[in-house]
Amino acid sequence: MTQEQEKVSKEQLILEAAEYEFFTKGFAGARTTTIAKRAGVTHAMLHYYYRTKEQLFERVVEKNAATIGQAMLAAMGNPAKPIIERLRDGISAHFDLIVAHPMLPRFFLNEIGAYPERYNLLTDHLGATANKLFTELQDEADAATERGEIEQVDVRMLFISMLSLNIFPFIVYPLGQNIMTDMMGDKEHFLERRKAENIELIMRRIKKQ
Amino acid sequence: MTQEQEKVSKEQLILEAAEYEFFTKGFAGARTTTIAKRAGVTHAMLHYYYRTKEQLFERVVEKNAATIGQAMLAAMGNPAKPIIERLRDGISAHFDLIVAHPMLPRFFLNEIGAYPERYNLLTDHLGATANKLFTELQDEADAATERGEIEQVDVRMLFISMLSLNIFPFIVYPLGQNIMTDMMGDKEHFLERRKAENIELIMRRIKKQ
DNA sequence: CTTTGCATTAACAAAATTGTTAAATAAAAT
DNA sequence: ATTTTATTTAACAATTTTGTTAATGCAAAG
User: Fold this and answer.
1) pTM of this prediction exceeds 0.90
2) Phi and psi dihedrals of A207, rounded to 5?
3) Which nucleotides of C are covered by protein (CB under 7 A)?
4) What percentage of chain A reaches a pLDDT higher than 70?
5) Shortest CA to C1' contact from B42: nucleotide
6) Closest nucleotide to A11: CA versus each C1'
7) CB B93 within 8 A of CB B63
8) What is the pLDDT of residues A49-95, one digit of tens each?
């Protein structure tokens, strides 16, 4: 009878509680006792399964690092499509991925900002794959410029703009909610509008005029 | 002879060291002993002048809260100028203020994200002044739209776009440096380009087409 | 010059937080 | 059934971090 119910192991519960705690408070602000309490276990259990706070943190980072790469990849769009569609779809897909993981950006940006050395492996790996995609995308953009389809653009600059527009609303949300309550009150609706706005901004940026 | 040299009191040195520590590590990650060491005093001195870590933190927040408001105000531009110039100047002035205080955005956004209740006073105050300016600016934008000068826009949406574009590069810098070393290596030059890019994006967004 | 008040230090205390261990319990394998 | 292995608990230990205090030094005011 316990076979059906007890699908989630305590080990799993701890990891999930840790994720929430680390995402909201960061490594320094997280408390292992709070994590244990949230998971509904004694804090000795936490150490039994993960030994140290550091190792538990590493597990959380590992579990989510792939999503960052996935988001970046998605942002590059589908190479088969024409550049304009490709960019539009890239922005959209990237935005949707953040909606699915809204706490990730603030967490990673802040932890990397506070302890950059810790993340050299992650950022190096990210940089390698990104730069390949950048040169490929730049070639395609240049070709489109030659054909008179779009303005001449630096795709890396465009990429930064896209990241800024897509990520920032999620970082500023707690603050924004207090300032623009009416606009940001209905989160679903706000995000929908925001996504459209971001696409509009980038489309207008590359539009030939 | 000590009159000329000892211009900076230890109290001041502690506050400055605290600022750096809190800005880089956040409240939770900051260590009062590290602050004292950086200031070149014993950690008892820190408690002598500021009693607790919390109070020291509050002093740092107080000292910098005004800058946030100042930046927001600057972003609204000069009401005397026509709307297009007003927006252009607003973005530029806002960007320059962040250049002068590059660690502020990440600090405040993260602390507010982690402990929102703590900042209700600050955000309420910010919200009050901002909303007045928003309605005033929206009226002006609507008038310009009537005259066929610009597209119809929601100035609050435009404001979020502007904040995103101006602030995000400073938050992502530690990560970006590792990924786009060539582009972001020369910080001065990168920021100059980035500022121009942000203005271009917003100008194109409002341009009648 | 001496008294008063502020600045400074060193040593100590308290609390919070992480981590350990040995014993108890439950589950699984033989 | 019994042995073995994994899980769980409670109590404890170590460390880190914040905060206090009492004694000392020092500079300015009277």
Assistant:
1) yes
2) -65, 130
3) 7-11, 17-22, 27
4) 97
5) C9
6) D7
7) no
8) 999 999 999 999 999 999 999 999 999 999 999 999 999 999 999 99
